[in-house]
Amino acid sequence: MEKKSTPIGWLNVLFMICLLLPVLILLMMPGGTMMGAFLWLPIVLLLCFWMIASMAAAARGEQQEETDHTIDDGVRMISDGEQPDAIRAVMDVRVATQQHSAGIFRGRLTAPADEALMRLQSDLGENVVPMIQQDEELGTAIVLMNRPTDESVLERPTRPWLHWLLFGLTFLTTTWAGALHQGVNLLEQPSEIAVGLWYSVGLLLILGVHEMGHYFMARHHGLNVSPPFFIPVPFALGTFGAFIQMKSPTRNRRALFDVAVAGPLAGLVVAIPALLIGLQTTEVLPPDAEPASAMMGHGTSAGSSLLFALISKIALGDQLQDGYLLQLSPLAFAGWLGLLVTALNLMPIGQLDGGHMARAMFGRRVGETISSVGMWSLFLLAIFVWPGLLFFALFIYFIAGRGIPPLNDITPISPGRRWIGYATFVILALILIPLPHKFWHAAEIYCPYL
User: What's the protein's topology in the membrane (predicted)?
Assistant: First the structure.
């Protein structure tokens, strides 16, 4: 029988077109400059991402409809005689229903959640995916779902050429952006490409180590995960970052937490040394100095962040006086961006690293509440504190929806992991909170909120 074609291939083509579209627009602009498109190019990209997300959702819907076309869309009760023996062996079932293709059994577990999950997976076989979730009324819900349609789609082999292509494009766009930050247009002066390399290499190293932290921790927990996808853009910072694709759900909240926290901590291991080294070649500007005209040359206040202030004082010592600004070198700017990227990823929102950490630490209900508060807080910060966050807020709003819950969403994480989570969120606060007023003069660091 002929197999019905799926739109997955077309989605890959559209994904590549959306990544290359800004490059084509840039090259077609008069004079090869990008500044005139600085405001509307992000809007074009957001629309592209929205279109891809919509088509991907439609594709998933078609695949699910193809799988469930023989199943009644209604909800029906499952009688005691129809309930699988494996369920009754691990749960005192009070309510059992079938919704679409999923069987939902609610009640009280008679065995520890980890043990119950192992027994369900062993007894039900590979064609059924059991999930143990929290239930507000009866304590626990076991959800049995048919394994997704075509395993060949989920187990699709990694295509190294795509990852290396995206990495190469991102290397070019970040080198372009790094040179432009120094006032050099590589389309007009291609021989000056070395100008942007310190920024490009530093930033890609930070992003790459961040994602490889996720990757190796996921592999440690036996998850099916892709290598990093880098996202090139030919304006602003030269990239929207990188991500890995999780092809299988996490087994429990411990694995969810470990994979989430590994990325930011690994990225900081590179970002902080890059910042310390880059600050050695950073120019300290007195209050009456005229900053350079390049994008990185307007001067940065060390007091805008507690952590940045501490690192700046360690690196520069007495050179950093009250009222002085920092004209960041390319490597220092990459390190500063590393702190910013870490802070954005640690925001406890949706599928961001911080969102996964919050869910793993506090459970589904509290995690979703924290996520909603975090999303609105980010928009309020963008409106009333720094308008530059608005683009990131919109970007996060589009991509940071609810993720797939762990198979065992009941068993809490260990106290040690919880303390690591608290410490990581303290790092988030240290990056976002400016130096308090009473410490300005004691630290001899200028704060922009005076």
Answer: Multi-pass membrane protein
Q: Do residues 261 and 424 touch, judged by C-beta distance below 8 A?
A: yes
Q: Which residue has the tokens 């507000």?
A: 136
Q: Where are the beta strands (DSSP E) in 2-137?
A: 75-77, 91-99, 102-109, 128-135
Indicate whether 214 and 321 sit together in one domain: yes
Tokens linked to 105: 């059994």
- 232 with 261, same domain? yes
8 A C-beta contact, residue 235 and residue 219 = no
CB 229 within 8 A of CB 364: no
Q: What is the pLDDT of residues 212-237, one digit of tens each?
A: 999 999 999 999 899 999 989 877 78
Asked whether residue 296 falls in the same domain as residue 164, the answer is yes
**Threshold 0.70, pTM exceeds:** yes
- Examine the domain organization and report whether 121 and 169 are in the same domain: no
Cβ(447)–Cβ(313) under 8 Å?
no
Count up the domains in the chain and report the number: 3
| Secondary structure letter of residue 252 according to DSSP | B
CA distances from 125 to 32, 88, 114, 145, 390 (A): 59, 16, 17, 12, 47
Cα Rg for the chain, rounded, in angstroms?
A: 25
3-state SS assignment for residue 133: strand
- Give the tens place of pLDDT for each residue, 33-92: 444 444 445 555 555 555 555 555 554 454 444 434 333 456 788 888 888 889 989 999
Q: Helices 364-384 and 389-399 meet at what angle, rounded to 10? A: 150
Quote the domain boundaries for residue 14. 1-70
Q: How far apart are CA 103 and CA 166, in angstroms?
A: 41
Distance, in Å, from the CA atom of 291 to the CA atom of 427, rounded to the nearest integer, reads: 30
**Could you please report the per-residue DSSP string of 349-413?**
-TTSHHHHHHHHHH-HHHHHHHHHHHHHHHHHHHHHT-TTHHHHHHHHHHH----PPPSB-SSPP
